[in-house]
Every structure is written in structure tokens, then in C-alpha cells.
Design goal:
The protein is α+β, with helices and mostly antiparallel strands. It has helices at about 50-55, 65-75, 95, 100-105, 135-145, 165-170, 205-215, 240-250, 285-300, 310-330, 340-345, 355-360, 465-475, and strands at about 30, 45, 80-85, 120, 150, 180-185, 185-190, 195-200, 235, 255-260, 265, 345, 360-365, 365-370, 380, 395-400, 400, 405-410, 415, 420-425, 430-435, 445-455, 455-460, 490-495, 500-515, 530-535, 540. An 8-stranded mixed β-sheet has the order 2-3-1-4-5-6-10-11, with helices on both faces. Strands 18, 19, 20, 23, 24, 25, 26 and 27 form an 8-stranded antiparallel β-sheet that branches.
Length: about 550
């Protein structure tokens, strides 16, 4: 800014912390059998009509379709359908949770193909067969790893409130803060049986209510109370009294009740972590879901930290980003406390990241926030070495962010190319086509099409070495009318860890330079002059044997 005369000048300086966006919270995954549809990977649908097109709609002996219908009727918007084909005539627990399926990414682990889901529904295997303990065990363990909540359905045998006991719950599902159990079942008209009232598992309707309240109030609002109306049903299978609801709550089971006026609502927001006497860290559904939401948002929003120089400038940027994210939640009413200092804190400095951490390429971030209930801080620690004696009562989660403690080496023609510091675009893309034989949607199959390899860009600071420019010049000489064939080379890209040990290597076979980018020059700045070489290639292969 030029200063032409004495006076007071105002100069605006941009302050743009790296923005952390909140991740979605209410994508519900449904696992089970349908009439037809893709089985290679889950499919995301946004309404029941779309589900019917892809998977056939309702089927009397396949409860998944009814659960999806109830999900959308109650406010759900995004349903991830993981279709499992039974090995026999009907679906069994082995089709869903046999440990051998994990390696094959089938059954429950079909969801490995999905980037994210937040709620997991596994409707009954059939109208007369409930999901077994083995499947609920696998589902809750998997949901914990994926930061999701399992909605557990009550067995049909629980025909009275007295049937629900600690022993009955232990036979059904494990105690977990990533699971919530609802009781009783729902009575609703079945359109496939002339509108006759039938009994249905509540998972789909409950997931829809979660989604509806997330959208109107936020993930921090308990999905219970007068707002949590169950839509699309005629009545609850069992009428619960206040005494019944109190007894269920003490067991960690969420009851449903009928309000004056006839509306059926969810009347509990407990996880299956344990009873009141157990005092679990995450006893309440909204506290657990808020913690998972914040954790997932920070992990995704701080991906830029990797490869940044690990020091005070980086720590300051991390603090600014996380504080801005938490302050936004505070303003929305997601956190307890009258001031930001009472609602959250962020620590990322020399007290959380030691010299040993720096040598290991680790930056530690400690984040505390006060959920609305219970009114205690929940700690999310990025790193496992931080201890705070004043915070002994806090609940904690500890993670690590590793900065870029590795080096690259690129070589062709048996020579290492000097100075390459970045490789972009290393990828393979295979086209998949779904075809229907004779126009029958039930006979769909996936055909693997052409595989393409994305161009790779090598980046380095300008040096005396002219390998980039020489190869690019050779391709020009072999152009139309050129006397020499295109100069294809096999390019090797190696990755070394902090101990200078090779960890992985790729070979680009038959590579050709398609673009040479000379550096931009700015004599008035402090930028490093960088040049780039973009390569097209015929194939990509792993080749981990080190070069001599």
C-alpha cells in the first residue's frame, strides 16, 4: 500500500485458516438380500423409487426392502444398499458374517467398497429368522472401525417387556458404544398382503429418524422425544408403561412409547455400552455420534498436514483450523458452556509434540470439547504420549498424524534422476459395464472393460541436470516426419522410509513424455524454480526389488 501523506491507514490482511468441513452424518447402510441388483459393490440410492429400480422393491420374504421403505418414510435421504446373495435358499448369518468373507470383501465386508457410512442396519434374515449373535458381533466391531452406529433390532421372541433382560441382551448382541438397541417392533400395513398389518423390525424407521433430526437439529441432538415421531406405521407391537421404559433404559435399551394424541415416538437415546452402574464413556447416542463426527471431520480435514514441515508454523495452522471448526459447532449450540473456553480447547505445540515425535514424523493434537450431555469434556488426542494431570476426569481418544518422513527416488535408463521431490497422478482406472441379458433386470452382470493408466507428473527443482528437457526434446524429434521412433523408457519410482529403507516401488512401462513444463520465474519473490515432466505409459506394475 503506498503512503502518500501522513495519516492513519487501514490494510486488510487475509486470514484464511485451512477450513475443516463437517463430514456427512446420516448415510445409512443396509445389508441383506434383495430380489436382484449389483453384488460387486454397494449402491447409493436417494429414494425408494430408485431402490426399486436397482433392487426390485418390496419382497415378502426379504425384510431389507421394508426397512429401506421405512427409512425414507421417516426422513432418510441417503441409503447405501449392500446386496448379499444367499448361498442357499434363504439368507443366513454365515452369508453375512463368516470370517472367511472379510478377505474376499463379501458379506458385511462388502461395505469396504464404500467410502463412508454412518448408520448400519441389518434387517432380519427373513420374516421368521432374526439376525444372530455372530453377525451382531462382527457388525459392532466393524462399525467401531468405520466410526458408525449399528441399530440393533429386537428378536421376535421378545413378545413382552419382561422378556428383555441382561441375559437376553447378552445372548443377542455385545455391549458396545457403537450400537443402539430399540424396542418393541413396529406394526404397519404390508402393501404386498393387501394392506394387512404385519410386524416389522424398527431399524429402518429409526435410521430415518436419526437422519431427519440430524438435518433439522444436528448430530448432537438426541434422536428421541416428541420430535422423534415414527411415521408410516399403525402402532407399536407392544404398549410400554413408564415403569417398562425405566427398566429398559437401565438395561441400555431404548423404548418407544405412544404420546397423548396417538403419535409413536422414540423415548430413549442410550448406546449398548452398558447399564447405569457401569458408567461407560459413551452411554448416550448423541454424545457418541458427536464424538465420531468431530473425530472423522478432523481426520479428513487435516489431511493437508501430511508432508508439511513439522514445526511451530504448522502447529499454528492446525490450531487455527481446529479452533475455527469447533467454534462453528459452539455457535450452532452443539457444545455445552457459555463461552468458547468452556466449550472446547485445542493444544498443538511443543508440549504435545516432543523431540522424539518430531524425529518419528508425528504431530500430536489434543482436542477437548464439552458435549451437551453429560457436561464433561471429551478428549480427542492426536498422538499417544500427551498426558494432562488436570484432565484425569476427561474421556479421551488418541490418534496420530504422520508427516512426510520419506524420500523419493526416480530412475530411467539405469540412472537416478536428481531432485525429484513429488510424483502426482499414479493411478489405474478400469471401466465396469452392467449388462442385462435379454432385457431382464434380474440377469444383470458386471463386465470388466478397458483399463487405463492416468498420466503421471514428476516435479523437481531446476538443477544442472537436463534429463527432463532432454527426454522431452527427444519426443519432439520423433514426431511426424521424424527419423527415430518415440523414445519409450521404463521409469522406476521408489519410496524410502526415514531409515532409508525401500518400502515400495512402481514401474511405469513404456513411458513417453507428453508435457514438459518449464518453471515460472519471479525475481521479486522467494519461490523455488520448479519444472515438471508429465508421462503417459503402457502399464503399471509393482517392482519392490531395490536397485543396486
Amino acid at each position: 500500500m503506498p503512503f502518500g501523506y501522513p495519516g492513519v491507514y487501514v490494510e486488510e490482511t487475509p486470514s484464511n485458516p485451512d477450513v475443516i468441513a463437517g463430514v456427512p452424518t446420516s448415510t445409512a447402510a443396509f445389508l441383506g438380500a434383495t430380489q436382484f441388483g449389483p453384488v460387486a459393490a454397494p449402491v447409493l440410492v436417494h429414494n425408494f423409487a430408485e431402490f426399486a429400480v436397482h433392487f426390485g422393491g418390496l419382497a415378502v420374504e426379504m425384510p431389507l426392502g421394508y426397512a429401506v421403505q421405512h427409512f425414507f418414510l421417516n426422513g432418510g435421504r441417503d441409503a447405501l444398499i449392500a446386496r448379499v446373495e444367499p448361498a442357499g435358499a434363504t439368507l443366513t448369518d454365515a452369508d453375512l458374517s463368516d470370517p472367511a468373507l472379510e478377505q474376499q470383501r463379501r458379506g458385511l465386508w462388502l461395505l469396504e467398497h464404500a467410502e463412508r457410512f454412518n448408520l448400519l442396519c441389518i434387517p432380519p434374515l427373513s420374516r421368521t429368522t432374526d439376525v444372530g449373535r455372530a453377525t451382531w458381533d462382527a457388525a459392532t466391531a466393524y462399525a467401531a472401525r468405520r466410526r458408525a452406529m449399528v441399530i440393533v433390532d429386537p428378536p421376535a421372541a421378545w413378545s413382552t417387556p419382561q422378556a428383555v433382560s441382561e441375559t437376553a441382551i447378552a445372548a443377542l448382541a455385545p455391549r458396545s458404544s457403537n450400537a443402539a438397541l430399540y424396542y418393541p417392533r413396529l406394526q404397519a400395513p404390508d402393501p404386498l398382503q393387501g394392506g394387512q398389518v404385519a410386524s416389522f423390525a424398527p431399524c429402518g424407521a429409526v435410521a430415518g429418524i436419526y437422519a431427519r433430526i440430524d438435518g433439522t437439529r444436528g448430530v448432537w441432538k438426541a434422536p428421541a422425544g416428541v420430535e422423534a415421531t415414527v411415521l408410516g406405521i399403525q402402532e407399536l407391537a407392544i404398549a410400554l408403561s413408564d415403569a417398562h421404559l425405566s427398566a429398559l433404559s437401565a438395561l441400555g435399551v431404548n423404548g418407544m412409547r405412544v404420546l397423548p394424541g396417538g403419535a409413536s415416538v422414540l423415548w430413549g437415546a442410550r448406546t449398548l455400552a452398558g447399564t447405569d452402574l457401569a458408567e461407560p464413556q459413551f452411554k448416550y447416542v448423541p454424545v457418541r455420534r458427536l464424538e465420531m463426527f468431530i473425530e472423522a471431520s478432523l481426520i479428513e480435514g487435516l489431511q493437508w498436514v501430511v508432508f508439511e514441515p513439522n514445526g511451530e508454523p504448522l502447529w499454528g495452522r492446525i490450531r487455527a483450523s481446529v479452533e475455527a471448526f469447533l467454534h462453528d459447532l459452539f455457535v450452532q449450540g452443539a457444545l455445552a458452556g457459555e463461552t468458547p473456553d468452556e466449550a472446547y480447547f485445542v493444544r498443538c505445540d511443543a508440549s504435545t509434540t516432543t523431540r522424539y515425535d518430531l524425529d518419528q514424523g508425528v504431530v500430536n493434537v489434543v482436542v477437548g470439547f464439552a458435549p451437551l450431555r453429560p457436561a464433561e469434556f471429551v478428549i480427542i488426542g492426536f498422538g499417544s504420549s500427551f498426558k494432562d494431570q488436570a484432565s484425569a476426569r476427561f474421556m479421551s481418544r488418541r490418534l496420530r498424524i504422520r508427516t512426510g518422513r520419506y524420500t523419493l527416488r526416480v530412475a530411467w535408463d539405469g540412472q537416478v534422476i536428481k531432485g525429484v521431490c513429488r510424483v502426482r497422478g499414479l493411478a489405474q482406472l478400469t471401466e465396469l459395464t452392467t449388462v442385462h441379458q435379454g432385457g431382464d433386470p434380474a440377469s444383470s452382470q458386471v463386465i470388466v472393460g478397458q483399463t487405463k493408466f492416468e498420466p503421471v507428473t514428476l516435479e523437481r527443482a531446476v538443477t544442472q541436470d537436463d534429463a527432463f528437457e532432454t527426454w522431452a526434446g527427444a519426443i519432439r524429434a520423433s514426431g511426424p516426419g521424424g527419423a527415430t521412433p518415440p523414445p519409450r523408457k521404463d521409469v522406476r519410482i521408489e519410496l524410502y522410509d526415514g531409515e532409508r529403507r525401500q518400502t515400495i516401488a512402481w514401474l511405469l512401462k513404456g513411458a513417453l513424455p507428453v508435457k514438459f513444463q518449464a518453471p515460472d520465474f519471479n525475481a521479486a519473490g522467494h519461490d523455488v524454480a520448479m519444472e515438471e515432466l508429465t508421462l503417459a505409459y503402457e502399464s503399471l506394475a509393482r517392482e519392490d526389488d531395490p536397485l543396486p
